[in-house]
Write a structure and sequence with these properties.
The chain is an all-alpha fold and about 110 residues long. Helix content is about 85%, strand content about 0%.
Length: about 110
């Protein structure tokens, strides 16, 4: 009975390894998203916390940008709704970049 228990984990582990290698990036991205979601549910209490939140938000925004870049291949949405979403996304991202640029430049100029 002890041999069966010992053999089962190694055989199940061997079966999981091929899938783990092929889906490692997807699992990593999913776990990163889950951990950033958990992080962003907390309130940053100091600069170190805020920097961790900034990094998590940056990753999240990056994933939204990647998604929007694939909107042309999306099925189930009209061309008009895609065009509207891209236009609004661009406008808001442009405004955000301008604000962040001002903060960046202000900090550099001291």
């Amino acid at each position: 009975m002890a041999k069966t228990k010992a053999a089962a984990p190694s055989s199940s582990l061997a079966r999981k390894n091929p899938h783990k290698n092929s889906h490692a990036k997807a699992k990593l991205a999913s776990s990163d998203l889950d951990s950033s979601n958990d992080l962003l549910r907390t309130i940053p209490l100091n600069s170190e916390d805020r920097l961790a939140h900034i990094q998590a938000l940056g990753h999240r925004v990056g994933s939204y940008v990647k998604f929007m870049c694939t909107v042309g291949r999306m099925e189930g949405s009209s061309a008009e709704s895609k065009e509207r979403a891209v236009a609004v996304f661009y406008d808001r991202l442009y405004i955000l970049e301008q604000e962040l640029s001002r903060i960046h430049d202000s900090l550099l100029l001291g």
